[in-house]
Specification:
There is one protein chain. This protein starts with 17 loop residues before the first helix and ends with a helix. α1 crosses α5 and α2 crosses α11. It is globular. About 35% of the residues lie in helices and about 15% in strands. It is α/β, with parallel strands linked by helices. N-carbamoyl-L-aspartate binds next to α2 and α6.
Length: about 300
């Protein structure tokens, strides 16, 4: 059976079915060789990717740029609204329309939820959400799932602890939704009471077969998980900085806690102090591999969307 990828835009992981996730992960595996080598393929030769980053980014922007270049295309864009005409008062809609004129697909990061969806409704080229406020970060989730599959061999039957800022962290929102597509999943939601997973996501999980348990401390769950998925406290989304300072540093993983455990440690990065650097040179560290996996996964996304939706 020939598989097809139905989505034109990647806005929310909630738009995905399991077969859509598997399609991208399979394509990514096929592109690993080019992603890892110094070779460049010609699959997207002459194609231009528009990178509209209204919020800071290192990995996401760089890996999208690497991905389009490895496929023979190129990327243009900006990394904060201060360096675009939005700072002169141009609307996001006009900026996006202009990018549409130049590019074959657009990647958007913005501090407001819903901006990528809004842009996808007004342009004809594929739109990819690279993080919208505390909303979703679907391409991060695809590379997280790719990493889990590669490191553990499967995604079904997984026990995973999501740790840290579950309230504002968009990576854990998307990942929770995606895990709802798999079988026999148990999620431990480990956070301070102030930063619990939003009700909306719990409501989504209630509609799936995922079993979830809310916990206050890592020690309660560490013996029962295959993956510790650690996140940064999203300082920039706090209204009162005092609230941030109270919580800062509350959930820290170190090498001693991990000794003798059969698990991997993941983190979407950037890390502040949630994972002690003494974990970096242990077998538990999969966060740098995870960041590198962004390239084949984003290559798969770009190849699929741009080829399926020629201009
Ligand atoms: C994450 C993000 O931007 O949501 N970073 C990333 O894309 N890898 C996580 C974060 O900023 O904490």
């Amino acid at each position: 059976m020939i598989k097809i990828f139905k989505l034109k835009n990647i806005i929310s992981i909630k738009d995905f079915e399991r077969e859509d996730v598997e399609y991208i992960l399979d394509e990514a595996a096929k592109l690993e060789d080019i992603a890892q080598s110094k070779e460049v393929s010609e699959e997207l030769k002459g194609k231009l990717l528009g990178l509209m980053f209204f919020e800071p980014s290192t990995r996401t922007k760089m890996s999208f740029e690497t991905a389009i270049k490895r496929l023979g295309g190129d990327g243009i864009g900006f990394e904060n609204s201060g360096s675009s005409s939005v700072s002169k008062g141009e609307s996001i809609a006009d900026t996006a329309k202009m990018f549409e004129g130049y590019c074959d697909a657009l990647v958007i990061r913005h501090e407001l939820e819903g901006v990528s969806k809004f842009i996808s409704d007004i342009v004809d080229v594929p739109v990819i959400n690279a993080g919208d406020g505390a909303g979703q970060h679907p391409t991060q989730t695809l590379l997280d799932l790719y990493t889990i599959k590669k490191e553990i061999g499967k995604i079904d039957d997984l026990k995973i602890a999501l740790i840290g800022d579950l309230k504002y962290g968009r990576t854990v929102h998307s990942l929770s939704n995606a895990l709802g597509l798999f079988k026999n999943i148990k999620i431990y939601l480990v956070s301070p009471p102030e930063l619990r997973m939003p009700q909306e996501i719990l409501h989504d999980l209630n509609k799936t077969n995922v079993e979830y348990v809310v916990a206050d401390n890592i020690s309660e769950v560490i013996d029962d998980v295959n993956v510790l998925y650690v996140t940064r406290i999203q300082k920039e989304r706090f209204i009162d900085i005092e609230d941030y300072l109270k919580i800062k540093g509350a959930y820290i993983i170190n090498k001693k806690m991990l000794e003798g455990k059969d698990l991997i440690v993941m983190h979407p990065l950037p890390r502040i102090d949630e994972i002690d650097t003494d974990v970096d040179d242990t077998k538990y560290n999969k966060y740098f591999v995870q960041a590198a996996n962004a390239v084949p996964v984003r290559m798969a996304i770009l190849k699929t969307l741009i080829k399926n939706n020629p201009k």
